[in-house]
Design goal:
Layout lengths: L19 H9 L10 E4 L11 E4 L2 H26 L24 H7 L16 E6 L16 H18 L3 E4 L9 H11 L3 E7 L6 E6 L24 H17 L4 E6 L11 E6 L11 H24 L2
Parallel strand pairs: 3-4, 3-5, 5-8, 6-7
Antiparallel strand pairs: 1-2, 6-8
Length: about 325
């Protein structure tokens, strides 16, 4: 083989100028400078024109392009062929769980459904914070004067004054208490029970007074006892809500009875249907104060102090009993 420089045709006057068919091939492959390509004559025969002999492009750009295309072909073809024809990986099967060893499943609850759907389960409800609170309900008020205890004293004013004394005594003992009324206003039974039930009181003391009899009369509701595991969470009928607290009310009554007995005050215990007592959703006792004896009227300050001290002591003991109850 030898390099030749054709000079016969005007097309070859420039150095290394390509023939017309070679120029078209170089332009088709997109070479930027096809004039620099060299062509090699192969298998030259005597008398044959250089224009009709085989021309072969052997430039450096062509060699690099061929290697690039070969590399792309290998990268694309061999991974696909290997994926289609490669050996199949063996599948390991776990042994099935015997029916006897399978756990028993119950019907999924709301938390199970939430966990299965990917939704975080709601936090469990916290139990209410229990705090000891006493509700004081002075009976009557406003136009309802109650009984006339003496020529100058009505029941509504006596019960309110006694509630204020008891409030001061409980505050000094660290026991919080509230009123259904703290002034001369009229409240019906529904309003009084509403205040008691909304406050979630630990003890409800309904105060009454009478000019007949002796000592202190204690009353609890005569409603039949309703068994409730936790009456604070139960839905209770309004007219008979006290039935769920009847057992607790009897315990509270027992503490009041013991404290009054220590003060040498005679006690009468009874059960009756009384509003708002029957609608109160809390341990509740109605306390009716009568003269101590024929020589000690209701207006006697010493007698009033005995009653207040006994009720303070009873509610202090009830606070300990109340905390131990379920």
């Amino acid at each position: 083989m030898r390099w030749i420089r054709p000079v016969s045709a005007p097309l070859w006057r420039q150095r290394n100028r390509l023939p017309s068919f070679a120029q078209k091939d170089a332009q088709r492959v997109g070479h930027p400078d096809f004039a620099c390509l060299k062509f090699q004559v192969t298998k030259s025969r005597p008398g044959a024109s250089a224009l009709h002999q085989g021309w072969k492009c052997s430039s450096q750009w062509a060699r690099r392009s061929g290697l690039l295309m070969a590399g792309i072909f290998c990268l694309c073809f061999f991974p696909i062929a290997g994926a289609q024809q490669g050996p199949t990986q063996p599948v390991t099967r776990l042994p099935a769980t015997p029916p006897s060893a399978a756990p028993l499943l119950s019907r999924p609850g709301p938390q199970s459904n939430a966990a299965a759907s990917g939704i975080p389960a709601a936090a469990p409800l916290r139990p209410p914070v229990l705090r000891f609170l006493v509700l004081l309900d002075p009976a009557h008020g406003g136009a309802d004067t109650g009984a006339l205890l003496d020529a100058a004293t009505t029941e509504k004013s006596y019960t309110l004054a006694l509630a204020n004394q008891l409030y001061t005594a409980l505050s000094s003992r660290g026991i919080r208490s509230i009123f259904t009324r703290d002034s001369d206003v009229a409240l019906d039974s529904t309003a009084r029970a509403t205040v008691a039930n909304r406050s979630h009181a630990s003890a409800c003391i309904v105060l009454h007074a009478t000019s007949t009899g002796n000592g202190v009369h204690l009353f609890t509701s005569s409603l039949p006892t309703v068994a409730e595991a936790d009456p604070r969470r139960a839905f209770l009928p309004w007219e008979t809500a006290q039935g769920a607290y009847e057992t607790s009310s009897l315990r509270l009554e027992s503490d009041v009875d013991a404290a009054l007995t220590q003060q040498h005050v005679p006690v009468l215990i009874a059960r009756t249907s009384l509003m708002p007592l029957d609608s109160m959703a809390c341990p509740a006792v109605a306390i009716e104060i009568a003269p101590l004896d024929t020589n000690t009227p209701l207006s006697d300050p010493g007698y009033q102090q005995k009653v207040v001290d006994a009720l303070e002591s009873a509610l202090g003991a009830w606070r300990s009993d109340w905390r131990q109850q379920p």
